[in-house]
Amino acid sequence: MSQTNSPLPREVADAYVDGLIALDPITGTYLGVKESSNRLPDTSPAGQEALAALARATLAELDEAERRPGADSDVERRCARLLRERLTAELAVHDADEGLRAVGNLHTPPHQVRDVFTVTPQETEDDWAAIVERLRAVPDALAGYRAGLALGLERTLYAAPRPTATFVEQLAEWADTGEGRGWFEDFAAAGPDALRAELDEAARGATAAVAELRDWMRDVYAPAIEGAPDTVGRDRYARLARYFNGTDLDLDEAYAYGWAEYHRLLAEMKQEAEKILPGAGTPWVALAHLDEHGRHIEGVDEVRDWLQGLMDEAIEKLDGTHFELAEPVRRVESRIAPPGGAAAPYYTAPSEDFSRPGRTWLPTMGLDRFPVYDLVSTWYHEGVPGHHLQLAQWTYVAKNLSRYQATVGGVSANAEGWALYAERLMDELGFLSDAEERLGYLDAQMMRALRVIVDIGMHLELEIPADSPFHPGERWTPALAQEFFGAHSSRPADYVESELVRYLTMPGQAIGYKLGERAWLLGREKARERHGDAFDLKAWHMAALSQGSLGLDDLVDELSLL
Questions:
Q1: Which of 311, 327, 450, 455 is the most exposed place for a label (fewest CB within 10 A)?
Q2: Do 104 and 221 fall within a single domain?
């Protein structure tokens, strides 16, 4: 093909998205591609290799595209850099066979298989007919995943035992929700009567496949990996941290930064705690007091509606003052998460045509009483002005970027860094003047600092600093990490357990909140210095949110130029 006819980087990136959707209909469903609704991906080693082959072919096409006239424009350059960084990072993880030991309490292939049903269209009988076919595909998807784990056992590539045990418990809950039927059967019960027989049969087959995977994980896989380490070591950690953060981190510097934030936040929390419970001793005594005596929302439906109102209020107050929001971006829904997942709230982005809006999800963990202090800044993070404003804005401006930048090319630390920046922004703007809400915000910030400390510390077995109030001079272990986290968090024991298993499941991901926030703050400060008194925060926000995804390699530089 001649250079004049070869595609530019954005065209290469969008062709990659088309190829990815063909191989991974779960991605297609999240993007709103209706044709994906009746299929599931090949999760076997062959399926994993097909994805890697697509990435390699795309990188080769990108080499050609970057030599084409016009490839050096800002929009093409930014897209090319993101595409190369993302695919290279993904291939490094694939080539290290991480997919053959992908076990944990979230974001594994079985979690993705289950969760995609919650966003699959369910409005019409045709939608449910597609769901029947997707339910029938569950056994093959879980069998392919199991084949990958079996190959990992052959190659002595073991998952961590503790996340494996948690995953077995989750599978048991998916297989039996307590009424003699599984999660898929509960889900299918909402379908139309005209398809009742097909839905029930397909759902029973999906549940049987979950039970079969549970039994194999419990009886074969877990005993085979007994005694394997729960942590990954420096080399694996560096590779995974690159994937989640979009940069090669100085892990020792990041660890030291986590401690610096810990000390800063602890001092601020002590001051705020005095306003709530003078003489409390520690901020967490004051937070425990709020668990019993602070403001609460009673009821699951009530907390869902209250969170919806919180996001609606934030949109009304921020739009036109600190953001300029298009009408589709103003729509976001509060939902309750399906049981059997991790304890942390999460967000799902809108479909590309906004027919499915962005949604926040609250795992209730069986509770029906919810402290307000623990919710406000979290929903500024998950909803508005956090994940929703960023990811929905990417969707809205996708035509000015590339489909890749606005969707599947996301870098975790960019998005999580923005969401943590959003919490801080709301504090800066005075939305957290109430002492309960502000202490809850600081507690949430402290949790993100703790993540940097314990995630890096335990996986690299680093030494706890001499000025630490906790086991100075000792080396981190998962047991010490859980004790430290629990002693510096308002969250209940089951939440702390879920968090620690999460860090063992996804090494290098949890540090991106604080490190990403640092990048966003530094980029804003550099832009402010550049513009001086002419700096316009609203204009900067909208320009920053309209760039699409960027790795931390790129983020500070690009934000500084806005």
A1: 327
A2: yes
